[in-house]
Amino acid sequence: MPSPTPNAPHARPAPNGKTAMVIGAGPAGLMAAERLAGDGYAVTIYEGMPSAGRKLLMAGKSGLNITHSEDLETFLTRYGTSRARLEPHLRKFGPDQIREWCAGLGLETFVGSSGRVFPTAMKASPLLRAWLRRLDDLGCTIHYRHYWTGWNDADQAVFKTPDGEITATADITILALGGGSWKRLGSDGKWMEILLNAGIKCNPFKPANCGFELNWTDHLIDKCAGSPVKAVTLTCGDQTVRGEFVISKTGIEGSAVYAISATLRDQWLETGVGTLTLDLCPDRTLGDVTNRLSKPRGKNSLGNHLRKTLGLDATKTALIFEVTPRETLNDPTALATAIKNLKLQIKKPRPLDEAISTAGGVAWEELDDTFQLINRPGTYCLGEMIDWEAPTGGYLLSGCLIKY
Ligand SMILES: Cc1cc2nc3c(=O)[nH]c(=O)nc-3n(C[C@H](O)[C@H](O)[C@H](O)COP(=O)(O)OP(=O)(O)OC[C@H]3O[C@@H](n4cnc5c(N)ncnc54)[C@H](O)[C@@H]3O)c2cc1C
């Protein structure tokens, strides 16, 4: 990996005599602006909020996971059914190129223990500052508080601004309007209605990387809300993930739940029921767990017995008591089976607005291989507004920074 170079002013390339309008100043829009300016376009960016990259800044609050260091073949599998469409672009500008690009902005990156890549500063603000400086050097203009409301009869883009409505045209238009969650950060998803009215097929938003609601008893909420359930496996359908999650007041959330959330959400959408199977002792066989639980308990409470024989903490024990019938608790063989196959019935996903990202959006069949709308030549869609999804792990931002 090259060491960071100072963020030297970017020389303006020779103008190509053409104009580009980028709507949406999130990572996808800013990257499009940088590339177009590099190709000599006179670029104007329009952003509805008073500042750029609000969701990017929020993403940086818990450590900006900008990409992933695993081998590219594994990396590409994370994009599921959208892999075929994204792969050529991720191969042109993937994890290595993202790290080089960060270095070019003066930001060193490192690989965390899970293989995730972060800027050394962890936050997004230094990256965003350096990026906006670069765009300024490249001659890009940004208009904030310019909220796009669609196209008028003359096919001009219309913006609501504090000074009233304005219109704009350009040789090419990039729509990079984000998904449908965390509306307060700017991506309100209202663009979908505009595109649908223009005859562009969009699939409804679905929460991705989201938590789920369960019918917890008040007792469990009092005892465990906010507590992690560590080192477990979660299975839904034919997907199993290992990791940890958190018991919340309303249900479950956290990294392992997000990792399995697409499968669990789709099962719930298709059947009206969503079932998660936990293995609370994934490193022990059923036989081993049964043998340990069959040891004489003496005067120990069942909770103490579970702790001493299997090392289960108070949260895991409370979870077992929450969902296991009394007769099972009293039978070591049945209890061992329950501990290795603890069933959680979800009520529904948490609301769309809380999701880290959203599936749904502009249907792939509306876009050509350069992300241009087939029925609206000269207009392109980029980033989370397209109907693809990926787990957390830096794959979302990587999918927004791709080269088209
Ligand atoms: C809490 C949280 C943590 C996250 N952490 C990570 C992480 O660590 N790693 C990772 O890879 N991803 C992470 N993500 C996801 C990542 O931030 C998004 O996938 C990414 O920001 C999407 O980029 P985008 O440019 O497509 O859309 P956005 O970042 O949503 O940008 C869209 C822009 O368009 C503007 N806009 C929308 N509508 C209009 C309109 N009508 N007119 C004008 N402007 C408009 C919005 O104001 C916004 O600025 C996280 C998300 C959240 C919420």
Automatic annotation (TrEMBL):
Alphabetical keyword list: FAD, Flavoprotein
Keyword Magnesium: no
Pfam families hit by this protein: HI0933_like (PF03486), HI0933_like_1st (PF22780)
Required cofactor(s): FAD
Domain RsdA/BaiN/AoA(So)-like insert: 206-357
Domain RsdA/BaiN/AoA(So)-like Rossmann fold-like span(s) in chain numbering: 20-401
Gene3D superfamilies in UniProt: FAD/NAD(P)-binding domain, HI0933 insert domain-like, Translation factors
NCBIfam families according to UniProt: aminoacetone oxidase family FAD-binding enzyme (TIGR00275), flavo_PP4765 (TIGR03862)
Listed name of the protein: NAD(FAD)-utilizing dehydrogenase
